[in-house]
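The following block was generated as part of the benchmark described in Methods. Ligand: adenosine-5'-triphosphate.
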Amino acid sequence: MKNRHLLKESIEALLEKYPFLGAFFEDNKLEVEGSGHLTFPEFLQGFDREAVEENAMDLESLEEGLVTYVEQMLSFLGLDREEGVWELTILAGRDKSGNPEGFDEITIRRSDIVSIVGPTGSGKSRLLADIEWTADGDTPTGRRILINGETPDKKWRFSSGNRLVAQLSQNMNFVMDLTVREFLELHARSRMVEDEEAIIGKIIREANHLAGERFDPDTPVTSLSGGQSRALMIADTAILSTSPIVLIDEIENAGIDRKKALALLVGEEKIVLMATHDPSLALMADQRIVIRNGGIHKVLPTGDAEREILAELAEMDSYIADMRTRLRQGEKLSKA
Ligand SMILES: Nc1ncnc2c1ncn2[C@@H]1O[C@H](COP(=O)(O)OP(=O)(O)OP(=O)(O)O)[C@@H](O)[C@H]1O
């Protein structure tokens, strides 16, 4: 199922994009009203076992059914032309000592989040660079990158407008003397989007949703705080960039809600890879690539036990964030 990513989107978002899904829910007697915020699998999990048995529901085939339904409808409506990039594959190369890497191939699909962990200097950024360059055995690691299962066209390496990869780096320094609105207008125009106003409004709304302190469209970009400019770049990349792959070299914790940032990118169906030293961020991914001595040592899925730890880490993070705010406001700290 190439459009498996549909199962990670909220029902609300699906209905907005594919209004014809209303008929699918009706035909299957699924009352989705009031459950728009859930993904389809989450919605199905809400049924108790009795109801499932009574109505002879096959939950797994319903999930597949939804994906197939969307695919067939899009094809029927002639809307399935170029779906672009739906998966990225990494083929093994060698580590710094020349030994083969500990895997054969890794495939990452749209709306998947993969984190990259490993000691300093182990080769995390090198892996991101291999992907950006669509390595073809021609980088120090000897890795190869496939797009949709094939060796990609070299045009991706040099095209400036329609890039395969968007990079989000730690330092977003704006040098232009523009307001947020003017900056986004420039970008929207270069992309020739149809409803510029609506898109710009959406980006600012989403960015404010991610940033701790709000800013408005008339704020000069040069006076945005670090957190605000990161939030703006993430929202801009998610909503306006056509790049299907987003590479992140660590999202700093200060001033931005990283969980929401990842949810925004995933909701826009990006393939997200991020190198990180932060345990919370590493565990927010669906799977993580462990790098050792320049090679991919193993690939681990984030299991249920780890998700429980993630919840604990989130509590600790919010404790730290709270202390940070209070320190910033000049308070003297005391234990609760
Ligand atoms: N498989 C490899 N073969 C040869 N050289 C490699 C390999 N992997 C990484 N390197 C080189 O090792 C150096 C360190 O790698 P890199 O900068 O990617 O580390 P990092 O994990 O991102 O470090 P940090 O956590 O400090 O950001 C780079 O010069 C990189 O090109």
